[in-house]
Amino acid sequence: MIESYIPIFLILAVAVVFGVVSANMSWLLGPQRPNRAKNSTYESGMEPVRTAHDRFSVKYYMVAVLFILFDIEVVFMYPWAVQYRNLGLYGFVEMVVFIGILLVGFVYVIKKGALQWD
User: According to CATH, what is the number of the domain 2-112?
Assistant: First the structure.
């Protein structure tokens, strides 16, 4: 039984080795001439105002997580839309329940003020 997994393990090993080797090749073969301009933070050609290690507001991450959360609904809605006629009334009711749950979550997010940038 384990013999059938050998090709998968081999591909994973080759992928890991390739990733490590290719990530380190630029460091090994590339020129090593650091200077102040190369070590500074790049911000669209503008002079850096702060360091690259400043903290972001928690609201930034909240919006990112909410975007992912509400964007994933498309992953579930697209196959439903493709098979809508085959699913009939049961599929329609299930999608209404799904959208209802999402709307409750969206209303909760709005009530908590997670989308306000004050």
Answer: 1.20.58
